[in-house]
């Protein structure tokens, strides 16, 4: 198993893409620390244990640096120091035009989607560099490049993750630590299945593959980036959107983008 002997830390692991990543990394041999504010994180931990790997579920608001530091310390004490970090947690449901976006909602999205990822990277990257190995994967979105009408906070934070990715890659490549961004298009998660059919139809029409992605497909890419074979890949932005990132057609005033 390619990740045997490694410890992974995944944010937003209670459901959807985060849950799929946790299970895939466990199947590849990693023990996993799981962060989420949802109690469903315990269900993901139970599934990991069924695969024969250790799991530690921690309720954590990643926008709070103190909670993040405590969570990382627990993972190191109860499992092992973090070798693999996947920043997956994100808020996607604050729907408002730029002029109607409230200060509170803007701050909330910045706090979780961008500051949360920064908090986690900052908490683990130094120890990774000291050990000479680390893998960091940030789950961004095709919206990072094309924007998303009425979701200014989501688009801005996902673009911000690209800057974070590039900077971490530049600073830590010499220490054996890679940092890459994955940019999903529409993925068949609980939130996407709950979308109005008209929006689903528009998104499907703008996707050359003529289907939505599966969480397990995102997880497979993340697992590869966490392995030894990906050691020379860093600072990359990898689209996984069924060709949707190639489409410049605007449908209903909004380009389709990743929704958890």
Q: Would you kindly provide a written description of the structure presented here, covering whatever features stand out?
A:
By secondary structure, the protein is of the alpha/beta class. 44% of the residues lie in helices and 15% in strands. It contains 9 helices and 7 strands; from the N terminus they run βαβαβαβαβααβαααβ. A 7-stranded parallel beta sheet has the order 3-2-1-4-5-6-7, with helices on both faces. Helix 4 runs parallel beside helix 6. It is globular. Residues 249-260 have low confidence and may be disordered.
Short description:
The chain is of the alpha/beta class and 260 residues long. 44% of the residues lie in helices and 15% in strands. 50% of the residues are buried.
